[in-house]
Amino acid sequence: MIYRLQKRFILICTLSVLTVIALVFGVILVLNISSMNRNMDMLADRVSEGGGRFPGSMEEKPQPDKMPPPNAQDFEFITPETPFSTRHFTVFFDKQGEVARTNTESIYSITDEVAIEYAENVLKDGDERGWISNYRYKVFSTEMGKGVVFVDGSMSRSSLMQSMTIAGLVLLGCAALVLILIFLLSKKAVKPIAESYEKQKQFITDANHELKTPLTLILANLDIAEAELGKNEWLDDIRSEGHRMTELVNQLVALSRMDEEGQPLNITEVALDNLVGDTFAEFEPLAKERGKHITASIDKEISYLGDEALLHRLVGILMDNAIKYCDQGGEITVNLHRGRRTVLTVENTYAAVDELELNRLFDRFYRADKARKFTGGYGVGLSMAKAIVEKHKGEITAYKKDEKHIGFKVAL
């Protein structure tokens, strides 16, 4: 149990760390892409304002001896050197949608034919801004019609890819370091729980030894007293409660042993259909005696590799629980079917099913009746059933069939 708890702790921490890393990486990526698109749009705006060229780029000569003018609006992204380092081209259309002229003088790798093809595809899509291949485009209006300016973004995209690769590797390295620390420290994290659990198990073991001896003496002395005094109601009540206490102690010890990680199962090939049928036959007279109608539907030739004794106890617990809590004159149905998995269901009539906390029925010592009136149960049986199912790597669930029926489903 402690080993499972440690694994679950590590799994939760791993998922949490990876989720945070993924979110951080995603935020960084979105912000970088947004920044790159904004910068590329600034360049496209400048070229479109200049009618296919950077404003003043062809008339004014660069002056290296002068400092670039401050440009607070663009965060100094566009400088006097930008026109000479930005590759771009423009295609103009007339009002009839025909190509009027092209300007590919500021780019080497794009011909007029390719430029026109890109521009026509952009106008066909209808978006004002976007990407086509490695070029950021903007559609703008001119006096004679429309124009489409394209700015080469291959370097920006390449830089983004490199920076995100580095960021991803750094984040993964940090995640790996954190996970290693979590793995190394996980034992310390669960140590208080492990100590508490060991004390609980030791208490149950000690209580078993301390209680069994006086219970045995009480029952033995009852036989002596009954032989001398004869049968009477008080002695019968003492014997009944003594047997109940003995059964409860035995169930607690069995449940504690099932929690132990190294407790092996006696795995054999079990004829599950026969096991369920035999258990049903054992409980059928008890159900009829208590005025409850019980039926079974069991598929033939269902075998399963498991611990026969524990599986017999599992079926017995579910049937005993159904008989104890079935309404007077109610119905109990037992089904065993094989599909993709072997499924056992035990359903019974229970008018107060809406009042049940189904998710708590498998908690130890949980009783549906808040007043804890005597019904012959201890709130341990279903916990033991769950432990047996988990030992066999299966699943057990409680469900409300309808307004008057409750069911338990075991999938092996």
Descriptive notes:
The chain contains 8 helices and 12 strands. The two termini are 20 Å apart. The longest helix is centred in the middle third of the chain and has 76 residues, at 154-229. With 412 residues, the protein is of the alpha+beta class. The chain has helices at 2-49, 82-85, 112-125, 154-229, 233-258, 272-289, 308-325, 381-391; strands at 88-94, 99-103, 129-132, 135-141, 145-152, 267-271, 293-298, 303-307, 331-338, 342-349, 395-402, 405-411. A hairpin with a 3-residue loop joins β9 and β10 (342-349). The protein folds into 2 domains: 2-158, no CATH class; 267-411, Heat Shock Protein 90 (2-Layer Sandwich).
Q: Descriptors for this entry?
A:
2 domains, Heat Shock Protein 90, alpha+beta, elongated, single chain
Sum this structure up briefly:
Helices cover 52% and strands 19% of the residues.
Distance between the termini: 20 Å
Helical stretch count?
Answer: 8
Low-confidence stretches: 58-75
* Oligomer kind: single chain
Share of helix, binned: 40-55%
Structural domains: how many: 2
**Secondary-structure content class:** alpha+beta
Number of strands: 12
Record the strand order, biggest sheet.
2-1-5-4-3
Give the overall silhouette.
Answer: elongated
